[in-house]
Specification:
The radius of gyration is 27 Å and the shape is elongated. It is α+β, with helices and mostly antiparallel strands and 438 residues long. It has 3 domains: 193 residues, BirA Bifunctional Protein, domain 2; 129 residues, Bira Bifunctional Protein, Domain 2 (BirA Bifunctional Protein, domain 2, 2-Layer Sandwich), CATH 3.30.930; 94 residues, Rossmann fold (3-Layer(aba) Sandwich), CATH 3.40.50. Helices cover 43% and strands 19% of the residues. The chain binds one RNA strand of 76 nucleotides through helix 3 and helix 15.
Length: 438
RNA sequence: GAGGGGGUAGCUCAGCCGGUAGAGCGCGGGACUGUGGAUCCCGAGGUCGCGGGUUCGAAUCCCGCCCCCCUCCCCA
């Protein structure tokens, strides 16, 4: 029997899910604050929906693609949430700007390793309709808020615009099709300058060109002061001018939040569909990949809709955020149940009243368990302890006869008996001290 | 696609110069008869990844295969 999930796929225990739900609901809350509404799309799409959108490598090696044995048609599991959104938009044509968020699973047939899975969750926010920098800026500001809400401090948003490198390359090197080169440049942080040199040589570029590329990507520009030098150096090149001014506009909109943004000429990103600004969020000092990424893809929707719609979006990697949070110590899987209260019935005589108390508490919104296994008081106590349920309500014959309830607060060891009609109020006060994320 | 590590109870593993399986934790129950995640006792659960070979006998040796993890590649 194959009880284990396939490679790269995972089961989640309650303690894992509790943390995941916290992370996901924090992201969702931020999306809602910025006025994004949820959509959902099928996990399965016609193969033609994906074909030609991500690039050759992704489409030939990384996608779960299969022929449906009943219809003989080709289908694929979604590789990200952006392309399905583009299809959705083109089918429905909602009013502009269309702002949607989508949190869901995506599948990539990569070799699994730390922080890389074959089934993982993305949390996307996208805007269709606006070609303007303020749309990109909103996504960046939203991203900053999300990171702060999750509790991250040491993060930075790396920002670039693909048109800048394209402009520089066509100016200096007369290069046209540059996606392959972008991919190599994108690896700079990982493989270093020497590694990039080796990879560029493999692409068949001559030494002069390689040297020039290395010189360009080794430059350091700052988003707040000297990025304008690029416009001076390449004045007249519309790609460079558009790219630089777009970035300057974004940063200008961001105001004081620009402190989280840094300009990275070597940031490119792998997917084919990006056309302008691109960004990534990285967390410093933990050697993990980026936790989020995004950019503008003004040409994608036209492939479905026939007419062109500017669009931009950002995507958080849920497991990357969780892994990063665990590494930096801000996330812990220390909460193993959502249950707040265990109603312990001392004997069969008190079961009925215990059930009624549980019913009352549930009606008031508390998360309550009762004994369902006819266990002894001792075993109920052990169970509540092991599940780390913070409050025990003990109902014995004494309580039954005096119409009271004994409360045991695990955290403080406090134990007291109060009248039943004071119970709800007491628990509500306690609630503030003991819980979060309700 | 390449390299490394590993597959024995639900989990972490021990056993491995061959003699038909163990520990801790966890799980179920009991003692204990209301301030206790304690202590004690009992119990369930394993075709030792799969197949073949050597042998009187294999978790243990040999061969093949499968699966998982890590790294690279690739990609976010």
């Amino acid at each position: 029997m194959y009880l284990k999930p396939p490679s790269g796929f995972r089961d989640f225990e309650p303690k894992d899910m509790i943390l995941r739900k916290r992370v996901i609901s924090a992201l969702e809350n931020i999306f809602l604050r910025y006025g994004y509404d949820p959509i959902e799309t099928p996990v399965l799409e016609h193969w033609e929906v994906f074909e030609g959108k991500y690039g050759k490598e992704a489409e030939t090696k990384l996608m779960y693609k299969f022929k449906d044995p009943w219809s003989d048609k080709w289908f694929a599991l979604r590789f990200d949430l952006t392309v399905p959104m583009a299809r959705f938009f083109s089918l429905k044509h909602p009013s502009l700007p269309f702002k949607r968020y989508h949190i869901g699973r995506v599948w990539r047939h990569e070799r699994p390793q730390k922080g890389r899975y074959r089934e993982f969750w993305q949390a996307d926010a996208d805007i269709v309709g606006s070609p303007y920098p303020e749309a990109d800026a909103e996504l960046l500001e939203l991203s900053i808020d999300a990171m702060l809400k999750l509790g991250f401090k040491n993060f930075v948003i790396k920002l670039n615009d693909r048109r800048i490198l394209r402009g520089i390359f066509e100016e200096k090197l007369a290069l046209k099709n540059d996606i392959e080169i972008y991919r190599v440049i994108d690896k700079l942080d990982k493989i270093g300058y020497d590694g990039v040199r080796v990879e560029l040589n493999k692409l068949g570029l001559n030494k002069r060109a390689v040297d020039k590329i290395l010189e360009i990507i080794s430059r350091e520009y700052n988003v707040t002061d000297n990025i304008n030098e690029l416009i001076d150096e390449f004045s007249g090149n519309t790609n460079v001018e558009k790219g630089v001014s777009h970035i300057l506009d974004i940063v200008n909109v961001l105001g004081f939040k620009r402190k989280y943004v840094t300009f990275s000429l070597n940031l490119v990103r792998g997917l084919d569909y990006y056309t302008g600004p691109v960004w990534e969020i990285v967390i410093k000092d933990i050697g993990i990949g980026s936790v989020a990424g995004g950019g503008r893809y003004d040409d994608l929707i036209e492939k479905y809709a026939g007419t062109s719609y500017p669009a931009t979006g950002t995507s958080f990697g849920v497991e990357r955020l969780i892994d990063a949070g665990k590494l930096t110590g801000i996330f812990k899987t220390d909460k193993i149940t959502f249950t707040e209260i265990y109603v312990l019935s001392m004997s069969t005589k008190t079961f009925k009243i215990s059930w009624e108390i549980a019913r009352e508490l549930r009606a008031k919104g508390f998360f309550v368990r009762v004994d369902l296994m006819r266990r002894s008081e001792r075993k109920q106590r052990e169970y509540a302890s092991k599940k780390e349920i913070p409050i025990l309500l003990i109902i014995g014959e004494k309580e039954l006869s005096t119409n009271s309830v004994t409360i045991y607060v695990r955290k403080t060891g406090e134990r007291l008996t109060i009248a039943r009609d004071e119970l709800i109020e007491f628990l509500r006060k306690l609630n503030k001290d003991l819980y979060y994320d309700k």
